[in-house]
Amino acid sequence: MDRTVVAPVGADQLSDSQQSFYRLLAIFVVAGAAASMLAFYVMGRSIDGQRANIALLEGEVSKLDAQIKEIGALESNLKVLRDRQNAVESLQAMRNAPVRMMSALLQSTPETVVLSAVKQVGNRLTISGLAPSNGDIAQFLKNLESMPTRFDHPELVESVAPEQLAQAGQVRMPLTFSIRVDLAAGATAAVSKPG
Predict the structure, then answer these.
(1) Nearest-angstrom CA–CA distance, 125 and 103
(2) Furthest-apart CA atoms within the chain: distance in Å
(3) What per-residue confidence (pLDDT) applies to 175?
(4) Model confidence at 94, in pLDDT bands (50, 70, 90)?
(5) Phi, psi at residue 99, to the nearest 5°?
(6) Worst-scoring range by mean pLDDT, 10-14, 106-110, 113-117?
(7) φ/ψ of residue 96, rounded to 5
(8) Domain map (residue ranges) of the chain
(9) Which of 18, 21, 54, 121 sits at 20 to 30 Å (Cα–Cα) from 135?
(10) 119-125 — which CB contacts under 8 Å span 24+ positions?
């Protein structure tokens, strides 16, 4: 059998191997430290860039918030102005309504009937006056009924004869009456539309 004798490694060889190991280890440590420092530097720069972007975006967001508040204020002002415009338009549309109502009332009143008071509460009129006879009051009610575009449901509330009885040869005293009538819904709707 062959015998192989392993010669002991010399101290020189061992120290050269250790030295090259330590040199490589030092190179890797220095390279690792340099790579870590470079990575920290690059990440720090990236974080600083992101912080700058965030600060820029926060500034823009605050500007947009201010603009949104301004837009909200403008919208509320616009709503107020629209409400005012609608109020003015409805007032302008309604300003001729009393004239039209009085004109229609005049057209429906017989010549012998005298109106003493006209009161309006909402869409209801109460008309008071004097008439020589119940026939004239009936004619007045009939005339009001014949204007369905202006008046609805005319009704006689009361017709009162004077308390003093006419003596023979004296002129008969007129009757006092009160009529309740509603303004027609079509007439108020047509009047409330502008134009």
Answers:
(1) 14
(2) 180
(3) 87
(4) confident
(5) -65, -45
(6) 10-14
(7) -90, -10
(8) 15-95, 97-192
(9) 121
(10) 120/183, 123/182, 123/183, 123/185, 123/188, 124/180, 124/181, 124/182, 124/183, 125/101, 125/151, 125/180, 125/181, 125/182, 125/183
**Shortest CA distance to 99 belongs to which of 139, 150, 146?**
150
Residue 177 CA to residue 193 CA, distance in Å, equals 35
Under 8 Å CB-to-CB from 143, ≥6 apart: which residues? Answer: 107, 108, 109, 110
pLDDT beyond 80 at 185: no
With beta carbons less than 8 A apart as the criterion, state whether 103 and 112 touch: no
- Categorize the per-residue pLDDT at 186 as very low, low, confident or very high, splitting at 50, 70 and 90: low
Burial class (CB in 10 A: 0-12, 13-18, 19+), 21: exposed
Residue 86 has pLDDT above 50, yes or no: yes
| Residue 179 · residue 140 · CB < 8 Å | yes
Question: What are the structure tokens assigned to 25, written together?
Answer: 């280890």
User: What would the CATH number be for the domain defined by 97-192?
Assistant: 3.30.1360.100
Write out the two tokens for 184.
């027609």
Q: What phi, psi does 9 have (nearest 5°)?
A: -70, 140
The position carrying tokens 């057209």 is: 107
Least confident range of 31-40, 103-112, 155-164, 185-194: 185-194
